From TrEMBL, chains A, B:
InterPro entries reported in the protein's UniProt record: Aminotransferase_I/II_large, Class-I_PLP-dep_aminotransf, PyrdxlP-dep_Trfase, PyrdxlP-dep_Trfase_major
Compartment list: Cytoplasm
GO cellular component, one term: cytoplasm
Name the record gives this protein: aromatic-amino-acid transaminase
Top-rank EC class of the record's enzyme: transferase
Lineage: Eukaryota, Fungi, Dikarya, Ascomycota, Pezizomycotina
PANTHER family in the record: AMINOTRANSFERASE (PTHR42790), AROMATIC_AMINOADIPATE AMINOTRANSFERASE 1 (PTHR42790:SF21)
Length: 557, 557
């Protein structure tokens, strides 16, 4: 990505020796729950987040910093709902309310909702179809004592933070995985991370501002923020993701007049399995980035849809696979620590999503941030999305709270880890077999859905008469001629007008069947050879026809 | 509301004589569907809206006006998704895509989703519980030819307009009810009308702008738009809703310097069962408002959550009820024509919602507007909410498309009409019985959830030593002492700093059980009498103790 000289890195990316102090265990959460008694949350109940976290269990930590100086005029000026004062009176015993305009649940035309889902460990489509567990929510399960969440509540209006019943589960999950190192952290649900990103930008940015992100990034993020009049500065990356020293330099040398805007303070990053580069920042890199964030008083949006698509190490085509994590603890320790887990200042808003690990169509995610930030976010939610779909929340609640629990969900995530490891290995093995390695090079991805390949366009027979852009175009269209679709790297530049020196293609191993992944890479290899004037592989693959050697993993570039 | 002298109205509010020209019938829609063949829409399919409307059936109409001059810089600057160009290539036969980052449906841990819902005409909770129909969606129903919508598609990422399968139903429903009188109308789904309102304001407004609305309005709307730096001008109302002549005067006399902002062009209205006043604009009022909109080149946001809570006429406590509509046609003719149905210019964005007639927790609604406006809206959706929950969409699809159909849904809406008529009659009968009518007066609501009562504060024994605001406060708190909660009218002013001459309370008859509604109004009557120093009702109700006569409906004020 950046020229090799710019790599600010360290050979070891192994993080298993990094101990998160004071990790919350499933047992601690279970014990606290047992002590707290039954959760009673009726229609549109306001959640008591501190109770869900354990009122005393975070008191030894410091408090988050205040971010008033970073909030946009829009966010600062949001007032609370004027009718909520009346809501406080609803607890008056014997009160009959003709106040709030909620329809009666009598008029929800649903008596039951059921889903058929995997028993723990029996994950395959066929096993679920043949032996899945059916979970049923009734209309009045709460009144009948059958559940603490039902259709009458879930299908009704709710609070901006989502239903207390499911929010508790999310808070506990966050505590188990990240245990934020400050006292007043909180969670609130989102209608998916794209919606949360849109709201976060409106919370921190105003027209004329700059924000920072990785030099290659998710185009939707750019398309979200640009219409707000906000400009995006792309920070150079290496194979370990965003380069903190270069970010420090950019910030230290920021010229407001030249840039026509103030020095940025908002950093949007995808630290794990980054889209499109697949890069995963090791823990040391994260600490360095966080240190630069402290130095320049940055606020960080940590967008982590791929966090649980961290995979087993890639061992190469001819070596045995690494066995799956032997326990939940080993699994959790294998995960790169999040920014949230090292955020002593409360300067991180972490965006979590179910889109990559349960189903994108749920449009349910959540953020974790300091209570000040969560409160502003909820306030915006109350006047925009209101809450994620209650139907989605009920489905997720039945699966995650009432069926799998935290433990079963970690089992599912380990299953996902192994499935993605298999898919990633398939595409890398196919690349080893079929791609001309003097032209195409890559770093094996450690997380996420994306395999990012650099193309040495200087080897094209018509270069330099033909420009890099034209070669990229030619190869893209030639791939389609060969019936395979990969994304152009140039579509992912954070700054479209930046001078480009490298050429990339992005392939995803998430969607296609594994036999199709291999075939698509075979076609891609043939397309590259054709474009670059190399002989076709006559014998099917590298190593059998002598064009390329296959010697384990393809080195870093 | 406005002083009687300002009423711009007409005695007849009956609209049954108004014929919507060229109404689409259920039969026409069914015939078109049969001719168009099977709908095939796979993952994230782009909907062919014109096919759903009938490609030739609207060609005789004129085209909508363009609204470029009304779009905000934010909306104008939105670009299409840069990766969508590649999506066009996905139709290449035999192509294997490693392009889009969609997770495989193999990893959605759901095999089936079922809902138990009413058979047509057997609407009660008990009937549904005992004899409801169970509708089931499988994971691969589309591939297996069982349905044209399934878990594999609905739980996946989708288009900003929502799933084509369900969008078709919404477009047909819109055509049957409103049949917009211009050619290039379109629909796109929303994550509920609050979200759609937030997006619409960002589409048309920028900081420093003014918008217009009814002088009393839904506080969330104000709280949505004010943080954007947009100010709200409240237009006087009478019992028929917003007063067009006064709006015309305000616009004609707009002084940019005095108001520190340009003349407004965006009108937000709730024409039917308005919140909080319960006012419903008759068709003649709507035509006059539309004429003023043409004169001043306004764009109208028609927010209509209560449209299908139009009720049967109120006949008074001692007269027989009006029988339900005898047919779908009679029902549709009984509805006040929407602005959309008279919108020859395409200057209306109509916001529809399932919150009041199916379930608020679905967070699914839709807008209808010209294709230009829908395109800008979808573009914003792609970078914010993405789409409403696919789980909600699948639930609604199974119920509305596959089970009830358009016909069964109209039957359900007639049921809702009769239920709300009963509730409204309950509260009005209770008001007749228990309220001191020389102090409390009202107009029987024709639609919606709200009963709006004027309090003659000048009859308070301490007036004028005690201010109107203090009397309102006293009565509100005294109601709570009497264990009944009504909302203060002053919470609903569009302009909080306007001089107030009248005092109101809002009661909803939507939520409480009917016996509780009656009891709450009895308590409210006792509370008013206490505050205003009247003797308590000794014998239970008006007409039995001689304090007030009960002579049919309470007249207009």
């Amino acid at each position: 990505m950046a020229p090799p000289a710019a790599i600010e890195s360290y050979p070891e990316t192994d993080t298993s020796s990094f101990t998160i102090p004071d990790r919350f265990t499933l047992q601690q959460v279970a014990k606290r729950r047992a002590a707290s008694g039954k959760l009673v949350a009726t229609v549109a109940a306001v959640a008591d987040v501190d109770a869900f976290k354990g009122r005393t269990q975070h008191l030894h930590k410091g408090k988050a910093r205040r971010w008033d100086h970073r909030l946009s005029p829009e966010s600062r000026s949001r007032k609370g709902n004027s009718l909520k004062g009346a809501a406080g009176l609803l607890k008056t015993p014997g009160l009959i309310s003709l106040g709030g305009g909620l329809p009666s649940a009598d008029y929800f035309p649903f008596d039951e909702l059921s889903i058929k889902v995997p028993e723990i460990g029996r994950w395959s489509d066929k096993e679920v179809h043949d032996h899945g567990k059916v979970l049923t929510a009734g209309k009045h399960d709460q009144a009948e004592g059958k559940s603490h969440f039902d259709i009458a509540t879930a299908f009704q209006y709710g609070q901006g933070h989502g239903a207390a019943q499911f929010l508790r589960w999310l808070i506990e999950h966050t505590e188990i995985v990240h245990n934020p190192p400050y006292q007043d952290w909180s969670c609130t649900m989102t209608s998916g991370s794209t919606s949360a990103t849109d709201m976060a930008f409106r919370m921190f940015c105003k027209a004329g501002d700059w924000i920072m992100t990785e030099q290659f990034t998710f185009p939707t993020m750019i398309e979200t923020v640009r219409p707000m009049g906000v400009r995006v500065a792309g920070i150079p990356m290496d194979e370990y993701g965003l380069c903190p020293k270069q970010m420090d330099q950019i910030l230290s040398n920021w010229d407001e007049r030249e840039r026509c805007g103030p020095k940025p303070f908002l950093l949007y990053i995808v630290p794990t399995g980054q889209n499109p580069t697949g890069a995963t920042q090791p823990v040391q890199r994260r600490r360095e980035v966080y240190a630069v964030a402290k130095k320049h008083d940055l606020y960080i949006l940590e967008d982590e849809p791929y966090y649980f698509l961290q995979m087993q190490p890639y061992t190469g085509p001819n070596a045995p696979d690494v066995p799956p994590p032997a326990s939940h603890e080993e699994f959790l320790r294998s995960l790169v620590p999040s920014y949230l887990s090292m955020d002593v200042d409360g300067r991180v808003m972490r965006l979590d999503s179910f889109s990559k690990v349960i189903a994108p169509g749920s449009r349910v995610g959540w953020i974790t941030a300091s209570e000040q930030i969560c409160e502003r976010f909820r306030n915006h939610t109350d006047t925009s999305t209101q809450q994620p779909s209650g139907i989605s929340q009920l489905v997720l609640f039945k699966l995650l709270e009432e069926h799998w629990g935290h433990s079963g969900y970690l089992d599912w995530l380990i299953h996902m880890r192994m499935e993605y490891t298999g898919r990633r290995n398939t595409i890398l093995d196919a690349c080893e077999r079929y791609l001309p390695k003097d032209i195409v090079s890559w770093v094996p991805p450690m997380a996420g859905m994306f395999h990012w390949m650099e193309i040495d366009f200087t080897r094209h027979p018509e270069y330099p008469q033909m420009s890099m852009d034209d070669i990229e175009d030619q190869l893209f269209l030639n791939n389609v001629e060969h019936k395979t679709l990969l994304m152009k790297g140039s579509w992912f530049y954070a700054e479209s007008d930046v001078e480009k020196h490298k050429m990339y293609f992005r392939a995803t191993y998430a969607a296609a069947r594994t036999d199709q992944i291999e075939e698509a890479i075979r076609r891609f290899g043939a397309s590259v050879r054709e474009c670059f004037g190399l002989a076709a592989l006559t014998n099917g693959a590298n190593g059998t026809n002598g064009t390329n050697g296959t010697n384990g993993t393809n080195g870093t570039h």
